[in-house]
Fold this sequence. Notes:
The longest helix has 17 residues, at 133-149. This protein has helices at 56-69, 83-91, 109-112, 133-149, 212-226, 241-248; strands spanning 2-6, 15-21, 24-29, 32-41, 47-53, 74-79, 95-106, 124-126, 175-179, 184-193, 195-203, 231-237, 253-262. Strand 1 (2-6) and strand 2 form a beta hairpin. The chain has a nine-stranded mixed β-sheet with strand order 1-2-3-4-5-6-13-7-12. The model is unreliable at 5-11 and 158-162 (pLDDT under 50). It is 25% helix and 37% strand. By secondary structure, the protein is of the alpha+beta class. 31% of the residues are buried. It is built from six helices and 13 strands.
Amino acid sequence: MNTTPFTSCPGDDAVMITRVAERQWHALDDDLVVGRGLAQHRPDGRLFVTVDAWRDAAFDRLAETMVAHLPAPLYTVVDEADAESAAGWRRAGFAVRRREWEYVVPTDPRVTGLEAVEPPSGVTIVPFGQADEGLLRAVDRAIRDEVEASVGWESMPAEVVPRPAGDTVVDPSTYAVAAAPDRYLGLIRVVRVKRPRIGLVAVRAGEQRRGIARALLSHALTTLHRSGSDAAWTEINESNHAAAALFGGAGARPVGSNLELVR
C-alpha cells in the first residue's frame, strides 16, 4: 500500500491518496474514503480510467495521481450530460476524442418497417446460435482487418465484454450471420446484460450496399420482439453516418451521448 499526501488548497480539507491495488486508488479524508480511482485495460488493449469522488479536490488529486503512475495514452468515458465529470478530466489534461450516441431501437416489425425485409439473392440469414464457429471467426477477422486498414478499429464503439487475449468472438451464440454458399458476408452481435444491446453490425467491404446489414438488423430485432423485448439499445460513433442511417431508418432515437476523452 502506497500513501501520497497532498497539500490542501485554501478552504479544502487535507486529502490523502492511497494505492490499494496495482491499478486502484482511494482518496482519504481523516481515514474516510471520499473517492476511488480505477484503471482497467479494455479488450482492445487501451487503458481506461475512472474516478468516483464526492468532491472536486478528491477527484483532481486522484486523477493527478493516476496520470503520474500510469502509462500514456489514458482514456476515459463520461456521460456528456455529466458536465462536472467532463470538466474534471479536462483539468487533468484530457481532451475529447469522440462522441458516441446511445440509441433506443424498437423491435416490433410494424414499427421498424423491417417486417418484409429479405436478404439479397444468394444470401441467407443464419439465426443466433447456429453459425459455424470457424466461418464466424473468419468473417469477424476479415471485417476487423478491413476496418483497421481504413478508419481503424478504435473508431468502433468501445468493447467492454471480457474475453481472452486475442479472441474477438467470446460467445458464438450471440451472433447471427449473413451467409453465401462458401463463406459468411456479415454479422450482427446482440448481448443480453440487463437489456439487449446490439454491439456490432458489420458487412465485408466488398458486400456492402446490398441490403445485408438491413436484413441482419431486421432478423435481430424480430428475434428480440418474439422473445418479449420491446426495445434494444446500441451506441454509434457520431462520425458513422451509415450506421446512424441504418438504425434511424428502423425508428431508433437518440437518448443520450457519451464522450471518450484521451490524455
